Amino acid sequence: MNGNDSMNYLILLRHGQSIWNLENRFTGWVDVPLSEKGIKEAMDCATELENVEIDVAFTSKLIRAQETLFLILAKQKKSGIFLHESKKRNEWSLHPVRFEENEIPVFSNDALNERYYGNLQGQNKQEAKEKFGEEQVFIWRRSYDVQPPGGESLKDTYERTIPYFKEKIVPQLENGKNVIVSAHGNSLRSMIKFIDNISDEDIPKLELATGKPLYYRFENGEFIKDE
To answer: Which residues are annotated as catalytic?
Structure first.
């Protein structure tokens, strides 16, 4: 990606490796931080994005995605200011409309959270295979519309992520902003499914590496993947 391009971009980024990624555990909505490797992945990504002018950032409510984002912004010498949506005009956490040159708005919403893995959360994936069978765990992990016990399917994640994407993220792109979304494997897979019109049958094959950004040019209302 050329940071000097006149067109604007959507940057999709799965957070760096978390402590539970390292331990091969189902994480979901459990709020665990980055591992040492995850911090390095975020810093490597920050170097890649150093010359890209980021105007607006979106992230989930989970610390691993937020840590990744703020390591990237620190490399850019930018301060991310969380904008907390509220009907109370005098709420202390609301930032003035005007931003300083080194500040960018950050929107955080649980619509961008990882898929909720229900009863599997915290379990080691290998131990889960031994307990429930490898085929069953594969179905829970990779199918589009099968829910793990007490949890969400990828379809459920899609149905909470895409309305937020269309309502909050796309308008920023339409306003000519470069947007980064620091989120999770399944919320990002939902967005990619929507953007690239990937079928229910093919989306389970899509795997996203930690700390590796994907770029889409936004041009005339269309998304164009930047290889």
So the answer is: 15, 114
